[in-house]
Design brief:
- The complex is a heterodimer of chains A (576) and B (178).
- By secondary structure, chain A is an alpha/beta fold.
- Chain A has 21 helices and 20 strands.
- A six-stranded parallel β-sheet of chain A has the order 3-2-4-5-7-6, with helices on both faces. Chain A has a six-stranded parallel β-sheet with strand order 16-15-17-18-20-19, with helices on both faces. In chain A, strands 11-10-12-13-14 form a five-stranded parallel β-sheet, sandwiched between helices.
- In chain A, helix 10 crosses helix 13 (322-361).
- The longest helix of chain A has 40 residues, at 322-361.
- The radius of gyration of chain A is 25 Å and the shape is globular.
- The N and C termini of chain A lie far apart (77 Å).
- The mean pLDDT of chain A is 96.
- Chain B has 178 residues and is of the alpha+beta class.
- Chain B contains four helices and ten strands; from the N terminus they run βαββαββαββαβββ.
- In chain B, strands 5, 6, 7, 8 and 9 form a five-stranded antiparallel β-sheet that branches. Chain B has a four-stranded antiparallel β-sheet with strand order 2-3-1-4, covered by helices on one side.
- Chain B folds into two domains: 2-79, ACT domain (Alpha-Beta Plaits), CATH 3.30.70; 82-153, ACT-like. Chain A, domain 2 (Alpha-Beta Plaits), CATH 3.30.70.1150.
- Classes of the chains: A alpha/beta (576), B alpha+beta (178).
Chain lengths: 576, 178
């Protein structure tokens, strides 16, 4: 009995079997066979307005769910437009499968219309990529792609499929087994190393937990909490790890790094044992490496062996999946607790009193304006509404840092942001992806006036699907982060950073059929935000904030983590 | 310093690009690279000599092993191994120096593979340093043109090849027929 299908239908069958119910994409010439098959397929296809945003939306979906996000684009310009989103997902270890069309296999290499070497171009943009030229290769390629994207250290995988592969007929046979002899993933963690780690953790006088995106990727947040509580250690979460430990947890200090809090960074500097969990010692966290945690021995748990010792020598490495490793670590810690806990009580008390003193000395405090809205105040108000529960998709820049400082996340996968690559234009499309994943959740998209304009076309997608995303533009009239650096390090010579033309968002919103408002006064900020949240569907707010606020504390690039530039003293103003 | 890597990889389109791309991307300069199929035609063996700081050698191996198509990357820099290189050289020489050239070739255990009125084509294999000496010596007899293969290496220690076994891919089976 023949069960022949064309490649496009086989692809959709594979997607269904992988549990994909939504994909973000943009059609084109060589994708016609696929889009014809999509026409009567139950999969939901979200038509974005630029391919880059298809990749960002898929990434937002993946970040908010932990499931693989799927995007697709046509050959040539469609594929090249995807690349920023792919590198973004690569840097942040986000599982994304990208499907691109390619010219008919016999035309490859002839400079055919809309031909680009997608396979070559995306090699360094992906965890892995696959070129498919025949219909009967599609099923294996797709299931392999999902397997590679979602296992080990997650990442983007691209499958480039020629038009004739979409059109060709083949028998579909389910793929139940993936055989990739070179793809070795260590998940369990070495038992002896885990025991030694537990011993070291109890022996330390000043242990400090440094948790990152790896905790979220492996759903190890409960295990992290157990480790932190068993040991009663202070803990910081990186920009990628916010929400790994609830922001309201008493052991949570805040974010460390370039714009981390004073206490978070001092703790990094003064600890005698750094317990690094699912992190990669990024330069934005460590500052000058030679001055990073100089008194500490280091335990590093990561699923990617190539991260161990990459930037910082490690005393005790454990390669494995954070969830598996931490659950065993908790057991080992608890076994040692009866003999160790009592011995460590005094040390731990002393350590906490130091940490609390740092927190009291220089807390992260929002600044309130009377005549004009301060950007920190905007984040403070959003935080009040969110109360640790809303999804916040952020763009890149000052607003991103203030949001990370002042908005609390009590669960993982609420904070969606471009950490490693720092791609402006990420905020709006990723919010769309997150909202498609969680239609019932409140989703804020926080952008600057720069990044918002990079993602402008997606207002159409937002309106099209009536998505319940509250777009808040923190409008300071500048590319604020670059302006801050020009002020601090380039003698305040403000070069090409002023955004002196910004659309009237009330007109802009009206043009797209989206409710929109400009907010100028601190007195109307809270009320307007609440109005926007209470209104069903999309809402666009242009919040005019002071132009010249800087993000503090700040560790200048290449500086030592304990030598932060703190906020200059300012008159105390109390909100009414 | 120079590091010698032996790499066993799947013989698939683009596999070479992944390896060279990784090295350039991470800022390592490739000194030489050879690649050919193994006894098993689905696999290739690659020998790469690359300029890497000593403290980064382990990292390079880990990054190589991270590539999906790479079955095993081994650092041969400090293990018992044999590294050999092939040189093909055309020597233009006047009639009166031809005997001396042949003597010299014999000393270096090189072979003449072609001879004409213009001169010789000589093939030599050996350690890279020895070959460099040979090239320098021959250069003193006249105009030479040299092609070097780059090193090929084999480890004297057997290293167990660990391969990932096939893994089940769980999928939803309740897909409505389409």
């Amino acid at each position: 009995m023949s069960n022949l299908k064309n490649g496009a239908h086989i692809l959709l069958e594979c997607l269904a079997r992988e549990g994909v119910d939504v994909m973000f994409g943009y059609p084109g010439g060589v994708m016609l066979p696929l889009y014809d098959a999509i026409y009567d397929d139950p999969i939901q296809h979200v038509l974005v307005r630029h391919e880059e945003n298809a990749a960002f939306a898929a990434s937002g979906y993946a970040r908010a769910t932990g499931k693989v996000g799927v995007c697709c684009a046509t050959s040539g310009p469609g594929a090249t437009n995807l690349t920023t989103g792919l590198v973004d997902a690569l840097m942040d270890s986000i599982p994304v499968v990208a499907l691109t069309g390619q010219v008919t296999s016999t035309l490859i290499g002839t400079d055919a219309f809309q031909e680009a070497d997608t396979f070559g171009i995306t090699r360094p943009c992906t965890k892995h990529n696959i070129l498919v030229t025949r219909a009967d290769e599609i099923a294996h390629a797709i299931h392999e792609a999902f397997h590679i994207a979602s296992t080990g250290r997650p990442g983007p995988v691209l499958v480039d499929i020629t038009k004739d592969a979409f059109q060709g007929q083949a028998q579909y046979a389910p793929v139940h087994e993936i055989h990739l002899p070179g793809y070795k993933v260590v998940t369990e963690g070495h038992a002896g190393q885990i025991r030694r780690a537990a011993q070291m953790m109890w022996e330390a006088k000043r242990p400090y937990v440094y948790a990152g995106g790896g905790i979220i990727a492996s759903n190890a947040h409960e295990e992290l909490r157990d480790v932190v509580e068993t040991l009663d250690a202070p803990a910081v979460c990186t920009l990628m790890g916010l929400g790994a430990l609830p922001g309201s947890h008493p052991n949570f200090i805040s974010m460390p790094g370039m714009h981390g809090s004073y206490a978070a960074n001092m703790g990094m500097y003064e600890c005698d044992l750094l317990i690094a969990l699912g992190v990669r010692f990024d330069d934005r966290v460590t500052g000058r490496l030679s001055s990073f945690a100089p008194h500490a021995r280091v335990i590093h748990v990561d699923i990617d062996p190539a991260e161990i010792g990459k930037n910082r020598a490690v005393d005790l490495p454990i390669v494995g999946d954070a969830k598996r490793v931490l659950s065993k670590l908790v057991k080992a810690l608890k076994e040692l607790a009866p003999e160790m806990q009592g011995l460590r009580d005094a040390d731990r008390k002393a350590w906490w009193s130091v940490v609390h003193a740092w927190q009291d000395e220089h807390p992260l405090e929002p600044v309130f304006g009377v005549d004009e809205i301060k950007p920190q105040q905007l984040m403070y108000e959003i935080n009040k509404i969110s109360d640790g529960k809303a999804i916040v998709a952020s763009d890149v820049g000052q607003h991103q840092m203030w949001a990370a400082q002042f908005i609390r996340f009590d669960e993982p996968r609420l904070w969606v942001n471009s950490g490693g690559l720092g791609s402006m234009g990420f905020g709006l499309p990723s919010a769309i992806g997150a909202q498609m994943a969680h239609p019932g959740k409140l989703v804020f998209c926080i952008c600057g006036d720069g990044g918002f304009q990079m993602a402008l076309p997606e207002l159409a997608t937002l309106a099209n699907f009536g998505l319940n995303v509250k777009v808040v533009v923190m409008n300071n009239g500048y590319l604020g982060m670059v302006r801050q650096w020009q002020e601090l390090f380039y003698n305040n010579r403000l070069s090409s950073v002023e955004i002196n033309t910004f659309p009237n968002v009330e007109h802009l919103g009206a043009a797209y059929g989206i409710k929109a408002k400009i907010v100028r006064s601190p007195l109307e900020l809270e009320r307007t935000l609440r109005e926007a949240v209470d209104e069903p569907g999309p809402y666009l707010l242009d919040v005019r904030v002071s132009s010249f606020e800087n993000v503090y504390p700040m560790v200048p690039a290449g500086g030592a983590i304990n030598e932060m530039v703190l906020a200059p003293p300012r008159p105390v103003t109390v909100p009414e | 310093m120079l590091m010698t890597i032996s790499l066993l990889m799947e013989n698939k389109p683009g596999a070479l690009m992944r390896v060279t791309g990784l090295l350039t991307q991470r800022g390592y300069n490739i000194e030489s690279l050879t690649v050919a199929r193994t006894l098993d035609p689905t696999l290739s063996r690659m020998t790469i000599v690359v300029d890497v700081e000593a403290r980064l050698r382990a990292l390079v191996i880990k990054q190589m092993n991270r590539l999906v198509n790479v079955l095993q990357a081994t650092d041969l820099t400090e293990v018992q191994s044999v590294v050999r290189e092939l040189v093909l050289m055309r020597v233009r020489a006047a009639m009166e120096s031809r005997t001396a050239i042949l003597k010299e070739a014999e000393i270096f255990a090189a072979r003449v593979v072609d001879s004409s009125l213009e001169g010789f084509v000589i093939e030599a294999t050996g350690e890279s340093e020895k070959l460099s000496e040979f090239i320098a010596v021959m250069g003193s007899y006249g105009e030479i043109e040299v092609t070097r293969s780059g090193g090929v290496a084999v480890s004297l220690e057997a290293k167990k090849l660990r391969l990932a076994p096939p893994v089940p891919r769980s999928q939803s089976e309740t897909v409505e027929s389409r």
